[in-house]
Amino acid sequence: MTNKFKYFIANWKMFGDFSSIKIVNSISSYLKRAKIKKNKVIFCVPSTLISHFSKNIKKSNISIGAQNCHYLDNYGPYTGSLNAKMLREVGAKYVIVGHSENRKEGDTDKIINKKIKSSIKNNLIVIFCIGETLKQKRKKTTNKVLNNQIKKGLSGLKSLKKIIVAYEPVWSIGTGIIPSEKELNTSLSFVRRKLISRFKTKNLVKVVYGGSVNPKNISELSRNNEIDGFLIGGASQSKKKFIDIIKNCYM
Ligand code: PGA
After folding, report:
1. Does a structural domain hold residue 138?
2. Can you give the residue range of the structural domain that contains 207?
3. What total number of domains does the chain contain?
4. Whole-angstrom distance, CA of residue 222 vs CA of residue 33
5. pLDDT by residue (tens digit) across 18-37?
């Protein structure tokens, strides 16, 4: 349980259709009913749904986000791609960048850095994902990996104002396994320290945790003061699970 301000960021991945707005609106009603105010809820939905959701979402403090973007600001010959400007235009306020599923498909730190810069320029708040693979964890190179991803991904940036860092151990995504309290504290405090020393600010540092967050493990995770919120994949597609996550976090 916690009484701290938390982010709850849903990552729907390649799931959902127009009718799924019911889920978002139920959550909005729940938040009003339960009078839970110390939070920010963001739904990062497939790009096909951004416009529909932004227009039809009940009046609430829930925001809609995208899950990725192209690294260029301008239009260009990139079949199937969408840039930050286009996503902003249809109603996205946030964008996930650097998710491990996209890193696996070729997003390098350099490309991620360009995407972050383009997103900020186009007034999107970036959810910047970092995290080590199981192999890297076994080789005990977690801190080195995180340091590199932060250094290269945020290269040239002057402020953290428009950035939420999401620490997502790759081995935890979709596996049902979460890091031990000790592992989590070690990685999260390392990330926080790096961000504080790089940007010379404590107040603007926001680090959320992602990887198999569910209604059961949220009580344990919410007690961790290093965590400013959660990036939730699988469980965020279920209205009941998402509400239970929020409920169990505060009660
Ligand atoms: P998961 O996904 O909650 O299903 O593990 C998290 C993510 O990929 O962001």
Report:
1. yes
2. 6-249
3. 1
4. 21
5. 999 999 999 999 998 988 87
